[in-house]
């Protein structure tokens, strides 16, 4: 029977790969694959292929004492992960299968153990991919030249962990079947762990010199103390199983690796035996898990990545939508509901007033002006980041609604009305965030009394930024929305989604493209406002030059945004999703 | 009410719909039938203004869909087999949203009896994710009918409905027709088409194979009692003509 399941896995994988290769005949995927391939080569593989290259990452060979410390820390992390697997979950064991697998495999004459083997086999695909990725990353950031050891180490650790999670879920289910509740199980697990650490604590207090207040300020002293706790006394013995698992990854050479791999493999095999010998009914819970998995996959395939991770609840509308009026407001209303309760006007006003009151109160009780200056600069910096990165994060626009393009197109609205209605919600949300940060920056910088810009000028610049930011947001949001309409398949709208190296390449191309488009859009704005600023500054001074230049910027940005919305509307009117799906 | 002249839709070199012409008058229910891939859904998508036709003209209530899409779309509703709903709007919020889009001032007075008729009034605060497939279908129908459209397209309208829902849907379609709506139904269920359609248009490979009233279609195939047999004969004959 397992041969049929192997057949399923093999041909599913092979056909997926073939489909991906065939997809490269389309230029959009080919270009993406080339750019993605170059990125992976230059960022990861070059260091692996030429580890001794002068510009490669430095190889960090740890000293023997540091190696023991590293091993113990890694073992402690592993212990924490394993403990969480016993403490947090509360549901019965459920192996997540796809809906097709449920439909074909569950009614088939297949033993439960064979299904577990199938699940383990499928897990191996994910583990091998994760191993590759982690090896690339770990080799990139340090430890070049030990790629094979790292890969084998990651594989053993991840496989053992995967088997342990599965075995733990079966054990939890068996305990539940025997009337041992989740809380009883948690107590049973946590008490010996607490006792063991208590023993370590008592030993440390009795055997090691206590840390003085000077020691606490000295990183080396803390490190020495931690090393002694981790490498001597009872803790190393308590951590033995976990140390065995992490040792292969930390081996410094091939001989060392061969020496430590066998205990780790034996431990992994023991886990395998444990999982396979468990006879737990997981089918019913698997049905529910598979349904949730299918919903997530459907949400991701329809481009709604956020929906894939959230449990939806009905949300209160941000304002009362009257039945008569400008129809585009309906799209804003709908998208703000989609964004959630966090984006109501009342909430934003409360937050803004609270933050300003807090800052003023701190200043009033003798707050440090340097600290306020630092907060102000940080807030301004975050505001800048919110401008550039925000449009990638807040996606309550066409990027989310494109699967419903057919519905939107039947509405009696012009294309530009749909386009504007769609981008209004993220514009308002981002502007709210940026204004809040701007208020913090202006309040802090005016209160800081530093030797930089005078307070009045700071306020004026803040007001100018407040005027310009909404329009900049509109322009920045036009770019990804237009890209969705121009290249919908690049935005994971196809039924198979877009994955792999070509998707990475596509994202890189889009990130660069968006930056370039933004710079191009800014050129006329900067040119006009600079000319106006210098002329007015020359005649009247800086205090009038700033607002006049801002008005000029706003005018140019308004024209650009208006033209952009019209263009986006035209794109929407011409857009045909069915062409992309054929 | 619905006037189509020379409608053609190309996807590259592929002809999805080819020189299609017909009209549907108020009170008429036209069945759009044909084998898989005949171009039924593409035709409906063109008629609904979702995709632009490559050639041809479509007039909805005397408004040209290409020249005056707003006025034309104000009069129509397109109800698909797969209900397209917004995941994060409740049933009631869906209707509120649609009311604003179509400027239905008295929407609350219309929505309550509509939801009651469709038996989803008790679900008014539920999200689509909390509804069964049939309930979602009913919500999509409620959204489509809220603005009292004069032209309605149904693409496989009975998909996902239970027997009572099917009966109600048939009654509802006939009631809308009696009230003066021009209706087009695309379906593979020939017995449904036979029961509620006054006219039929048979499509194959994007071309009109035959059209007329149910009686006319039957009369062309003497001795054939039901529409199913007539449909099979009509589509096979067209295939033979093509192969010749």
Question: What does it look like?
Answer:
The complex is a heterodimer of chains A (582) and B (244). By secondary structure, chain A is mostly helical. Chain A has two domains: 57-281, no CATH class; 329-579, no CATH class. Chain A is built from 24 helices and no strands. In chain A, α3 runs parallel beside α6, α5 packs antiparallel against α6 (147-177) and α21 runs parallel beside α23. Mean pLDDT of chain A is 81; it is low at 54-59 and 493-497. Chain B has 244 residues and is α/β, with parallel strands linked by helices. Helices cover 40% and strands 25% of the residues of chain B. Chain B has a six-stranded mixed β-sheet with strand order 6-7-8-3-9-10, with helices on both faces. In chain B, strands 2-1-4-5 form a four-stranded antiparallel β-sheet. In chain B, α3 (91-102) runs parallel beside α5.
Give the biggest sheet of chain B.
6 strands, mixed
Which strand order spans the largest sheet of chain B, edge to edge or round the barrel?
6-7-8-3-9-10
* Mean pLDDT over the residues of chain B: 88
The residue fraction in helices of chain B comes out at 25-40%
For the secondary structure, the number of strands of chain A is: 0
Integer-rounded radius of gyration of chain B: 18 Å
Structural class of chain B: alpha/beta
Tell how many strands the DSSP assignment of chain B holds. 10
Total number of helical segments of chain B? 9
Task: Report the mean per-residue pLDDT of chain A as an integer.
Answer: 81
């Amino acid at each position: 029977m397992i041969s049929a399941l192997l057949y399923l896995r093999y041909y599913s994988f092979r056909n997926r790969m073939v489909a991906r290769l065939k997809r490269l005949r389309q230029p959009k995927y080919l270009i993406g694959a080339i750019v993605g391939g170059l990125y992976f080569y230059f960022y990861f593989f070059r260091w692996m292929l030429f580890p001794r290259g002068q510009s490669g990452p430095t190889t960090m060979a740890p000293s023997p004492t540091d190696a023991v410390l590293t091993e113990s820390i890694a073992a402690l992390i592993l212990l924490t992960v394993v403990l969480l697997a016993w403490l947090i979950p509360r549901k019965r064991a459920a192996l997540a299968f796809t809906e097709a697998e449920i439909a074909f495999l569950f009614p088939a004459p297949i033993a439960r153990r064979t299904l577990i083997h199938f699940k383990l086999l499928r897990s191996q695909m994910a583990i091998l991919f994760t191993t590759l990725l982690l090896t690339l990353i770990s080799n990139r950031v340090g430890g070049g030249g030990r790629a094979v050891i790292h890969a084998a180490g990651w594989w053993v650790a991840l496989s053992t962990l995967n088997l342990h999670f599965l075995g733990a879920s079966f054990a939890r289910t068996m305990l539940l079947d025997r009337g041992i509740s989740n809380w009883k199980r948690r107590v049973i697990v946590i008490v010996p762990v607490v006792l063991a650490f208590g023993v370590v604590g008592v030993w440390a207090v009795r055997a090691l010199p206590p840390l003085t207040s000077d020691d606490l300020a000295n990183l080396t002293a803390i490190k020495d103390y931690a090393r002694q706790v981790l490498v001597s006394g009872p803790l190393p013995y308590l951590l033995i199983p976990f140390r065995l698992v992490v040792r292969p990854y930390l081996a410094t050479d091939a001989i060392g690796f061969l020496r430590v791999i066998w205990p780790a493999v034996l431990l992994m095999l023991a886990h395998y035996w444990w999982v396979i010998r468990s006879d737990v009914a997981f089918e019913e819970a698997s049905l529910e898990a598979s349904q949730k998995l299918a919903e997530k996959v459907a949400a991701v395939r329809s481009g709604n990545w956020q929906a894939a991770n959230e449990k939806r609840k009905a949300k209160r509308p941000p304002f009362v939508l009257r039945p008569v009026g400008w129809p585009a407001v309906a799209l804003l209303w709908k998208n703000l509901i989609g964004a959630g309760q966090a984006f109501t006007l009342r909430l934003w006003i409360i937050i803004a007033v609270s933050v300003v009151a807090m800052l003023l109160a701190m200043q009033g009780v003798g707050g440090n002006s340097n600290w306020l200056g630092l907060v102000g600069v940080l807030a301004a910096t975050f505001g800048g980041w919110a401008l550039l990165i925000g449009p990638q994060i807040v996606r309550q626009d066409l990027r989310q609604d494109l699967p419903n393009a057919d519905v939107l197109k039947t509405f009696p609205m012009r294309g530009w009305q749909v386009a504007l209605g769609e981008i209004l919600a993220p514009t308002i949300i981002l502007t709210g965030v940026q204004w809040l940060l701007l208020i913090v920056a202006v309040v802090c910088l005016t209160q800081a009394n530093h030797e930089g810009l005078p307070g009045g000028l700071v306020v004026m610049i803040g007001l100018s930024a407040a005027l310009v930011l909404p329009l900049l947001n509109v322009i920045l949001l036009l770019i990804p929305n237009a890209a969705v309409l121009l290249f919908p398949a690049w935005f994971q709208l196809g039924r198979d989604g877009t994955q792999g190296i070509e998707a990475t390449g596509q994202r890189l191309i889009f990130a660069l493209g968006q930056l370039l488009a933004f710079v191009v859009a800014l050129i006329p704005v900067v040119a006009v406002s600079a000319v106006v600023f210098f002329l007015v500054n020359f005649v009247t001074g800086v205090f009038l030059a700033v607002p006049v230049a801002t008005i000029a910027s706003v005018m140019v940005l308004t024209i650009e945004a208006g033209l952009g919305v019209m263009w986006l509307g035209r794109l929407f009117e011409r857009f045909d999703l069915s062409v992309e799906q054929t | 009410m619905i006037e189509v002249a020379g409608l053609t839709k190309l996807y590259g070199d592929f002809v999805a719909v080819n020189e299609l012409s017909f009209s549907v008058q108020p009170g008429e229910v036209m069945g759009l039938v044909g084998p898989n891939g005949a171009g039924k859904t593409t035709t409906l998508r063109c008629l609904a203004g979702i995709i632009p036709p490559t050639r041809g003209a479509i007039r909805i209530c005397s408004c040209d869909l290409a020249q005056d899409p707003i006025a034309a779309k104000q009069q129509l509703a397109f109800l698909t087999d797969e209900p397209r709903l917004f995941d994060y709007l409740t049933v009631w919020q869906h209707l509120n949203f649609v009311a604003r889009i179509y400027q239905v001032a008295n929407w609350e007075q219309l929505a309550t009896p509509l939801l009651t008729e469709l038996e989803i009034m008790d679900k008014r605060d539920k999200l689509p994710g909390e509804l069964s497939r049939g309930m979602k279908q009913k919500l999509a129908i409620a959204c489509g009918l809220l603005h009292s459209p004069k032209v309605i397209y149904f693409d496989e309208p009975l998909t996902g409905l239970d027997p009572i829902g099917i009966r109600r849907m048939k009654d509802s379609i006939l009631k809308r027709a009696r009230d003066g709506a021009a209706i087009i139904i695309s379906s593979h269920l020939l017995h449904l088409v036979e029961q509620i359609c006054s006219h039929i248009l048979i499509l194959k490979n994007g071309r009109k194979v035959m059209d007329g009233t149910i009686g006319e279609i039957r009369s062309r195939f003497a001795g054939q009692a039901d529409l199913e047999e007539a449909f099979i004969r009509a589509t096979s004959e067209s295939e033979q003509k093509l192969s010749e």
